[in-house]
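Severity: low
Component: inverse-folding endpoint
Summary: output formatting inconsistent between runs
Steps to reproduce: submit the following structure tokens with default settings.
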């Protein structure tokens, strides 16, 4: 891949992160979030609020957001349950990466792979266009074999998780990545909040409200 091709591909992926989808939710722009027309069910422990991140490993903005979200999650571990939800926007390369997330989850190696995959794509310029690419990479960074990764990638459980993620993205009317769903009722994204740290500030406020602290 030539430098110009890499630059074009990177620009295209960045643009895809900002895609505006069809469908509507009730906008509360001055507060930085939208209220879902149809609330989604959540299943969290008592006293904790579900926070769902919609992302893709292929999204450069998600790569920038990941350390911010990681720090925020650690600081709020007692009151939130953060769920990462990879989505594809119908893009084949993103579907491979979404499967990669759920395969790592099934193999219980996310601690070794999650940040590493972002780094490989966005800092090292690596492309993951096939299951074999993912399997070889995971085997190099975690204590798993390529065969184990391939089995997970092609499993019914991973396919089911991927299908559910796409249904959730449609239900939340996700327009771009990263986006944050809070308590199954609100969607926060950069367009509404104004910036990535602002997204987390808005999420803080919504979590406080849902927890009875706001």
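Observed output (run 2 of 3):
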């Amino acid at each position: 891949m030539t430098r110009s091709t890499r630059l074009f591909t990177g620009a295209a992926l960045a643009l895809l992160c900002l895609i505006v989808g069809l469908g509507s939710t009730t906008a509360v722009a001055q507060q930085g979030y939208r209220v879902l027309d149809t609330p989604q069910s959540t299943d969290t422990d008592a006293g904790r609020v579900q926070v769902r991140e919609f992302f893709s490993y292929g999204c450069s903005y998600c790569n920038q957001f990941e350390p911010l979200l990681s720090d925020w999650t650690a600081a709020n571990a007692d009151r939130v349950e953060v769920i990462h939800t990879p989505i594809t926007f119908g893009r084949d390369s993103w579907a491979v990466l979404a499967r990669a997330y759920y395969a790592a989850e099934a193999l219980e190696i996310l601690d070794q792979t999650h940040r590493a995959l972002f780094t490989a794509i966005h800092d090292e310029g690596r492309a993951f266009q096939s299951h074999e690419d993912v399997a070889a990479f995971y085997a190099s960074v975690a204590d798993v074999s390529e065969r184990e990764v391939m089995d997970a990638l092609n499993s019914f459980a991973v396919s089911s998780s991927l299908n559910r993620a796409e249904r959730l993205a449609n239900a939340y009317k996700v327009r771009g990545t990263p986006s944050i769903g809070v308590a199954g009722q609100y969607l926060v994204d950069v367009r509404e909040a104004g910036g990535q740290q602002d997204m987390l500030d808005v999420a803080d406020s919504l979590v406080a409200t849902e927890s009875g602290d706001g």
